[in-house]
Design goal:
alpha+beta; Muramoyl-pentapeptide Carboxypeptidase, domain 1; 10-stranded antiparallel β-sheet; 442 residues; globular; 20 strands
């Protein structure tokens, strides 16, 4: 009322609350003229906008120049959103686009305008560079392509996420929907295809839960001296694997007689104990992820332990490729330094552990118009966002494979084995989900 009296000093409270019946009968509001009502509405809008204006008052805005704009552009350059310092002194359309990209990567509303929240995140230790995986939040989820889940997913799962004993497995395979699902009494596999058009990028997130003696297994016979390179779908079918994916490429190294093939254990047996020296920044540097008897996994530097030491620790299998992505929940320091040898954007595959018998596999498409590929730091960040504490980069490039129920879902349906554009032959893979007979009659 005080606010109204400021602009209508001659009106009393009773005047404002009364209704002119004659005016009412004519369909007109009493108390204020049309001009006064428009003025009051305009002033209310100004008051509502005032906090937003104040929030932007101390941050650089489009069209401006000056020290803050220079700080903004320098920080965006440091975080890889600019690839050159020839970016001018004005907050122009290019700046706005890069601010929007930064906001998307950091889970902020993508306005292209630097508000207080954007400014605070930009200069914090948590700011994500353009090379990392995006922080996907409610504010940014709409820019990603998500899978469509089937309506008939079983709802009567155990606390561990499995079907009750004796129930027939549930299977869904949907290339169109971007979703694949397998659930039995001891295996749970969920594959989600995610896409993002700005980069552009397409990747698969495969979540695996195992119980009842099921485990990750190497699809390779270590007794065979020279392993034949074969279609990944054939390998998966031969071993009866529900899911199979790229491993550490050890089978190929063994076939080619490479000396430093890595510290390799398969099914509790020492296979190789010759590896690269620790600390290399090339790929592969032969860092290791080890699988223990209880289903847990742990990453180690190349040469950190011998094969015998791993066996004494209770390790049943190791895969050697690298670099380490996550160790004890932290991103490997070599990736944070973003050294030259880890800067290539390529198709990638990685494995991580959320908890014992609970794993995550990332499969990223690359070298395509629809998907550029990623650096190892992207894998590390995404693995961490998904809840993993340990993770290792596996074999990548054109040999990346993800086979579900006999279908290689990271390649075009019906693709042939072709070195350049089709399916690349492999010597070995990691497999999941075997019948009791395939596991030795357990």
């Amino acid at each position: 009322m005080i606010f109204l009296n400021m602009f209508c000093p001659n009106r009393t409270k009773c005047d404002m609350e009364s209704v002119d019946k004659k005016a009412h009968r004519k369909g007109k509001a009493a108390g204020f003229s049309r001009t006064e009502r428009i003025l009051i509405l305009f002033l209310c809008v100004l008051l509502l906008l005032q906090p937003a204006a104040e929030a932007f008052a101390d941050t650089p805005q489009p069209g401006e120049k000056g020290e803050q704009v220079e700080q903004l552009k320098q920080r965006l350059y440091d975080l890889k959103y600019y690839t050159t310092k020839r970016y001018g002194k004005q907050y122009d359309d290019g700046t706005k686009q890069r601010v929007a990209s930064f906001q998307r990567m950091n889970g902020l509303p993508m306005t292209g305008l630097v508000d207080e929240a954007t400014w605070d995140v930009l200069f914090s230790d948590e700011a994500r560079s353009a090379w990392r995986a995006p922080l996907i939040t409610d504010a940014t989820s709409a820019v990603y392509g998500w899978p469509v889940k089937p309506k008939d997913l079983p709802g009567n799962l155990t606390d561990g996420g499995f079907l009750a004993a004796g129930e027939a497995p549930y299977v869904f395979a949907g290339r169109k929907e971007g979703y694949w699902r397998y659930i039995s009494e001891d295996v749970s596999i969920e594959i989600r295809r995610v896409s993002e058009s700005e980069t552009p990028l397409v990747w698969f997130e495969t979540e695996i839960r195992l119980a009842g003696g099921q485990k990750l297994c190497s699809l390779m016979d270590p007794a065979v001296r020279k392993i034949q390179m074969r279609d990944p779908r054939v390998i998966a079918e031969e071993y009866g694997a529900i899911l199979a994916f790229s491993d550490d490429f050890y089978g190929y190294r063994k076939t080619r007689g490479i000396n430093n093939a890595g510290t390799i254990i398969r099914d509790g047996q020492k296979i190789s104990d010759r590896t690269s020296r620790p600390g290399l920044t090339k790929t592969p540097n032969m860092d290791v992820i080890a699988l223990f008897e209880d289903g847990s996994m742990k990453t180690f530097l190349s040469g950190e332990h011998t094969a015998e030491e791993y066996l004494d620790m209770g390790v049943t299998d190791t895969w050697a490729f690298g670099p380490i992505l996550l160790r004890d929940g932290c991103i490997d320091e070599r990736l944070l330094e973003e050294t030259l040898n880890y800067r290539d954007e390529d198709p990638r595959c990685a494995i991580g552990m959320i908890g014992p018998n609970h794993y995550m596999v990332l499969t990223v498409l690359g070298r395509q118009n629809t998907s550029t590929g990623v650096r190892p730091i992207w894998l590390a960040q995404r693995m961490k966002d998904l809840g993993c504490t340990e993770a290792l980069n596996l074999d990548g490039g054109n040999s990346v494979a993800l086979v579900f129920m006999g279908d290689m879902i990271n390649k075009a349906e019906g693709a042939d084995v072709n070195f350049m554009n089709g399916i690349r032959a492999l010597a070995s893979m990691i497999g999941v989900g075997f019948s009791a007979s395939e596991r030795g009659g357990e």
